[in-house]
Write a structure and sequence with these properties.
- This protein starts with 6 loop residues before the first helix and ends with a helix.
- Helix content is 69%, strand content 0%.
- With 122 residues, it is mostly helical.
- Helix 1 (7-31) runs antiparallel to helix 3 (49-85).
- The chain has helices at residues 7-31, 36-42, 49-85, 100-105, 113-121.
- It contains five helices and no strands.
- It is elongated and about 65 Å long.
């Protein structure tokens, strides 16, 4: 059974998601504009080590969020390119169509569920 993919619908979803991700990245960049040295200068020397640790953990969380959003942005851009070149919805590993349900859940996916599971098992 052949299912035609409504690439325009997916393109719009991807563009909407891309705008959301870019907004989140812009916010994170704004929040983390200062360097570690700037933050150290703001922390008085009589601060408890736990206060310094909390600041460090918060900064690490922000950096992790930023990395995740950047990876997602790349995945979205790659999916948009696949729509343009006509390969959207085709598994990059086996070449078979990706189930529409999987694309609806993860429109930027590059693999069918079977190939993804095999990859994750190593």
């Amino acid at each position: 059974m052949s299912t035609t993919i409504d690439t325009e619908q997916f393109k719009q979803r991807l563009l909407d998601e891309r705008a959301r991700v870019q907004e989140a990245l812009d916010y994170l960049h704004e929040e983390n504009a200062g360097s570690i040295e700037d933050e150290r200068e703001e922390i008085p020397s009589d601060n408890h080590p736990a206060d310094v640790a909390t600041s460090t953990v918060d900064r690490e969380i922000d950096y992790t969020l930023e990395e995740n959003e950047e990876r997602l942005l790349t995945a979205i851009d790659t999916a948009l390119k696949r729509i343009e070149d006509g390969t959207f919805g085709t598994c990059r590993t086996c070449g078979q169509p990706i189930a529409i349900e999987r694309l609806e859940a993860l429109p930027y996916t590059t693999q069918c569920i079977d190939c993804k599971r095999r990859e994750e098992r190593g």
